[in-house]
Amino acid sequence: MEFFCHHRDRPGSMPLRERLVEQHWSYMDRFELIARGPTFTGGLLTGSVHVVDLPDPAAARAFAFDEPNYRAGAYRDVLLRRWRNVLGRTMWDFPGGREGGGHLVLGFGSGEPADLVPARPDELIAYGPLLSDDGTAWLGTAALVRSADPRSALTVDRYDAVEVHEWEFGGRRQ
């Protein structure tokens, strides 16, 4: 069962994150990660994305809230949703390689699902729907994308809100 986790930084938490970087990486190295990496705004660190395969929602909550930065108070909040790996690969399998950054694109919606079949898959690093814990309700879409126009990864007018964050490949290869 796959989960999308976006830990968002608390303002001023960078010194704490710097002290805990090895603990964070060692913690993440224990899991089967589909994708991971930091988010930025204007070059400033704003959070971390982790897409992980775990047995159930309880294990996903433990993963998100036992993370060293979270436990130390570095994060403002956590977006944790069940997710489905539409591309069937990890970020390490992305044909475009790890050099260069990308973007995290989050589309939040309700009702009829949108973008269940991705457009332009060659630009997608990771992609899938955000789902309720039981997997029955579509809540949006999360995409890691390398594109000149990252919003084009989604049919923007089908969502209630769309967020775009700078993102980079992170961590150590599994």
At a glance:
The protein has 174 residues and is of the alpha+beta class.
Question: What are the key terms here?
Answer:
174 residues, alpha+beta, 8-stranded antiparallel barrel, 4 helices, 8 strands, 16% helix, globular
Order of helices and strands: EHHEEHHEEEEE
* Total E-strand runs: 8
Helix content: 10-25%
Give the amount of beta strand, in percent. 35-45%
Unreliable stretches:
none
How large is the radius of gyration?
A: 15 Å
Walk across the major sheet and give the strand order.
Answer: 1-3-2-8-5-7-6-4
By secondary-structure content and strand pairing, the structural class works out as alpha+beta
Tell me, briefly, the overall form.
Answer: globular
What is the chains' assembly state? single chain
Question: Strand count, sense and closure of the main sheet?
Answer: 8 strands, antiparallel, barrel
Distance between the termini: 18 Å
Mean pLDDT: 94
Q: What count of helical segments does DSSP give? A: 4
Can you tell me about this structure?
- The protein has 174 residues and is an alpha+beta fold.
- The chain contains 4 helices and 8 strands; from the N terminus they run E-H-H-E-E-H-H-E-E-E-E-E.
- The chain has helices at residues 14-19, 21-28, 57-65, 68-72, and strands at residues 2-9, 33-41, 44-53, 75-83, 102-108, 124-131, 138-145, 161-167.
- It has an 8-stranded antiparallel beta barrel.
- The chain is globular and about 40 Å long.
- The two termini are 18 Å apart.
